[in-house]
Amino acid sequence: MDGDGDMDPGRDDLPLRANTNHILVRHYVLDLDISLQTKVITGTVVLFLEPGPLAGDGNEAGEGAPTPPQPSQTDDSWEDESHRDFTLVLDCCDLTVSKVEELDVTSVSDMQGLLKEVKGEGLGVGPQPDSQSAVLIQRLISLPSTQWKKQHHLYFQCSHAPASEGGGPLIFHTDRWSLQVRKRGVRTIQEFPRALRVCYKTKPEGGSVRWTKDQDNRSCVYTAGSPINNRALFPCQEPPVAMSTWQAQVRAPRECVVLLSGENQAQPTHLHHTGLSSWDYYVTMPMPASTFTLAVGYWRQATDEKHSESVCLGLGDDNFTCCHTDYPCPFTDPSAWSQEVVPHRMFAPPSLLQKAQVQVLPLLPGCLAAAHATLGVHPFPRLDILIVPASFSSLGMASPHIIFLSQSVLFGGERGLSLCGSRLCHELSHSWFGLAIGARDWTEEWISEGFATYLEDIIWARAQQLSSKETEEQSQLKALLRWRRLSDELQNSEEQLQILRPNMESTGQVSESGSSLVKHALNPEKTFMFCICLVFDVPSCSDGYGLCVFLASKVGLEYFLHFFRLFIKKYHGQLILSQVGATVLLQSLTLEAIYADWLDRPGVPKVSCMVGTYCMQLYWPERAYYIDVEVAKWIGLSPSVGKGRKRKKAGLNVNFKEVMPEQLVLLLEILLEEEELSVTSLHTIKRTYDLPKQDAEVRHRWCELVVKHKYAQAYGDVEHFLIHDQAMGVYLYGELMIQEDSRQQALARRCFSLVQNEMDQSARRVVEEMVL
């Protein structure tokens, strides 16, 4: 990795500027005010700091310093300051920072107890005033996990401490991607303040949060999984290695609900005479700042009178020890081992509350219990589910203690249970892979996505209580569908965006200061492709899922699931690289071949093509014969077939056979390969399978058929899909435009004009290039 001074990110690469090798944020205390009217979040974030792994006693400020500052937005004298002073670099963009100040934690009376404890441990003479704050903060950070309540209380007290009056002021500077802070005359990390308060406000156009309207046309805001993560929500250290805890106090209009990634089920405190309520959340498990999640809106909670927490016996491990840093870990709690179903809540806009209560909430206990049976201890003690606005760019997104679901999973009634249940199980899998075990390098999202896609089938089958044969048939069908989609996706994407490890042997490497670049992270096509892959179960637009299928075929399903459980036990609470997972599982296989065939090259490995062919051979004879019959029937209704013969009136020879949604998707995909289908066929297909009432995946394939064959009578179905299923509809814009049909192009432009202001930024940029 080149030094920081050489770092010149292109348009596509995201810079991680934080100098995490020099200094680390161990805890954040956020105090935020949400204004839905002005679309601004105002507040403070307090950082509790600790020297990083390369912070030697004599480390000078200039080593590993960031790129030369761009024109200052905050301090005109910044460039005149000595570059020999140590610089704290935080990832930050689209924030207006008004003040950065050092906190006088010695003024917090409760902290003096820590000072006495330090003196009692044989450190000799008490620290001098200049270093007393550093000693106190280090002692606070180092408190054992058994004292986490005391620790969080002290963090909160310190966050309200006055600014330090001695030692000189802090100066700061912001450029496009960072906030940089110095203290005049302080040249070493050891002398740098350990507790800072940053006063700031967000900008409406900031990319970390989405200001939009919910399905009832009421204002809301939520973190939307932006490519820039949370740096436009609060100044932070974004590299995954900067694992931290946090606590947050959020004030919002009294009628609103505030959901946040926290371990506690917060209840609002009404602030008299203000019209506001305050919500307090915290986490004790260190995680990357990118996993911090916030949602504020006029949501309502669904109720489930039948819900009860479920426990099982005999799963504990008396000799279990953790390998991560000290925190209150559920894996060491016997009660967590026996808890199949964690406490959970369901939220939605009022207009969708009934659907959420009927279609999603009843699935949760079974899915949670199946996930527990498959993977073991739930990493997080509770879960909130939120139905997010229609503009959400994916079917789901998992964060600590909270899952966002698209409204698309709610439609289809009984027919939609498969899509809803599968998506729930996918996001639940991320509690283990993606959150409890994270990727050390962001370019390796395939680790979490590939594993989660593979596990969703197993967990969903167990939640449905399917037999072994039914489970195998369902998995084979889904594998076949994913292989077809992957093959199609790879034909329409750049090779450089298909590589699982774009940094190859440099994966995980950073500069001397800890800064790095995330390749292609800002490429709208990469971002858009990633969202599409999440929607259509094509992990990372490369075959991470296929790799899991391949490995399971080599070692056997039960051994592979056993590997997952052992892997979780060993690596929970930690960050990993792909080499780690491969090494653990493939001790008897050739790692070089795995890297070469699966991780370091674009396209589909030959063995993956064999997997796809294998799934087709397995599935087709036993369960898909009637799909062949159905395809032949619909083609038979086309005008090019049977000309010159008297045919029965359309519909009389249709023997409807009810099929699973995945089978119907496969049927429609095969019909999409036909060059011609008659209006009669399309009309009868729609009526026979009641397509407008099917789940979103089926309706998406139906819309593709409508567009390909210019079936104008069903253009209303396409318009409805583009407006109400935005997470899945972006591809359709391209298909409407590429047909070069004026009516279809007008339809695309009309729909885009209706939703463009609410669309995800990356999706909007892609669609703009298509239609404008």
From TrEMBL:
<feature type="domain" description="Peptidase M1 leukotriene A4 hydrolase/aminopeptidase C-terminal">
    <location>
        <begin position="617"/>
        <end position="771"/>
    </location>
</feature>
<dbReference type="Pfam" id="PF09127">
    <property type="entry name" value="Leuk-A4-hydro_C"/>
</dbReference>
<dbReference type="InterPro" id="IPR042097">
    <property type="entry name" value="Aminopeptidase_N-like_N_sf"/>
</dbReference>
<dbReference type="InterPro" id="IPR033577">
    <property type="entry name" value="AOPep"/>
</dbReference>
<dbReference type="InterPro" id="IPR027268">
    <property type="entry name" value="Peptidase_M4/M1_CTD_sf"/>
</dbReference>
<keyword id="KW-0378">Hydrolase</keyword>
<protein>
    <recommendedName>
        <fullName>Aminopeptidase O</fullName>
    </recommendedName>
</protein>
<comment type="function">
    <text>Aminopeptidase which catalyzes the hydrolysis of amino acid residues from the N-terminus of peptide or protein substrates.</text>
</comment>
<comment type="similarity">
    <text>Belongs to the peptidase M1 family.</text>
</comment>
<keyword id="KW-0479">Metal-binding</keyword>
<keyword id="KW-0539">Nucleus</keyword>
<dbReference type="Pfam" id="PF01433">
    <property type="entry name" value="Peptidase_M1"/>
</dbReference>
<keyword id="KW-0031">Aminopeptidase</keyword>
<dbReference type="GO" id="GO:0008270">
    <property type="term" value="F:zinc ion binding"/>
</dbReference>
<dbReference type="InterPro" id="IPR038502">
    <property type="entry name" value="M1_LTA-4_hydro/amino_C_sf"/>
</dbReference>
<feature type="region of interest" description="Disordered">
    <location>
        <begin position="56"/>
        <end position="81"/>
    </location>
</feature>
<keyword id="KW-0482">Metalloprotease</keyword>
<dbReference type="InterPro" id="IPR016024">
    <property type="entry name" value="ARM-type_fold"/>
</dbReference>
<dbReference type="GO" id="GO:0005730">
    <property type="term" value="C:nucleolus"/>
</dbReference>
<dbReference type="InterPro" id="IPR015211">
    <property type="entry name" value="Peptidase_M1_C"/>
</dbReference>
<dbReference type="GO" id="GO:0006508">
    <property type="term" value="P:proteolysis"/>
</dbReference>
<dbReference type="GO" id="GO:0070006">
    <property type="term" value="F:metalloaminopeptidase activity"/>
</dbReference>
<dbReference type="InterPro" id="IPR014782">
    <property type="entry name" value="Peptidase_M1_dom"/>
</dbReference>
<keyword id="KW-0862">Zinc</keyword>
<keyword id="KW-0645">Protease</keyword>
